[in-house]
Amino acid sequence: MNTSIKIIVISNDEEQSISDQIDDMGAVSNHINPAKGTIPKKITKDYSGLILGPMDIRLLSDQNLQDLILSSAKSNIPILAIGQGMIALNLAFGGSFQKVDQKHFSLDQESNFHQIYITVGSKLTSIIGSGGFVKVNSNHQIGIKPANKANSLLESAYSVEDGFIEAIESPNHKWILGVQFNPEKKGELPRQFDRIFESFIDFCNK
What tens-digit pLDDT sequence spans the chain (206 residues)? Predict the structure, then answer.
């Protein structure tokens, strides 16, 4: 497989878990630490996918990051946005965000868990094979309510308790998906969520 996936992630721990997922599928991950000011303005031609991983809140509106997201989308490069990466994706498309209450995060950095509803007929449903209610992990202090969502993106999952959006997708691009939960943390989600990475890799090869 000659797929090279560019990973943008702030946490070394998160970087490793995401990279492990990519490497296990035969692709090559290239980590860029946004804190070092190394974010390119656009993805290079030798890369076929972009993953936006969890990152520092202060970097979400970084201009290079926003340019990278939009230039990748314009080139129809598959984008998978995870955790704060989903917020960065929403910001790039013209959305905003707000703070969440402690139900969505833990002070000791361990995952909380809560129930979400995945919209039937969404891209996320087609990827994991089913929609409806499911319990997912959660560890984030900011989020997106419907009023914060970029107009060109669709809501594909939301928190049952408070309505915060848990997944967004673009109907206008080949493969753009953002999820607030963390599918790279194996064992914390149902096994069908592994298909998110599998689908992403598949589309990177097309």
Answer: 445 577 665 454 555 678 778 888 888 887 777 777 778 888 777 788 899 988 888 888 889 999 999 999 999 999 999 989 999 999 999 999 998 876 655 555 567 788 999 999 999 999 999 999 999 988 768 999 999 999 999 999 999 988 999 999 999 999 999 999 989 887 888 999 999 999 999 998 87
Secondary structure (3-state) at 38: coil
Strand bridging mode 176-179 / 79-82? parallel
Residue 169 near residue 154, CB atoms below 8 Å: yes
Q: Yes or no: say if 53 and 15 are a contact pair by the CB < 8 Å rule.
A: yes
CA distance 41 to 145: 28
Q: Nearest Cα to 19, choosing from 67, 82, 65, 105?
A: 82
Rg over CA atoms, the chain: 15
Cβ atoms of 10 and 35 within 8 Å: the answer is: yes
Which three-class secondary structure state does DSSP give residue 200? helix
Q: What three-state secondary structure class fits 68? A: helix
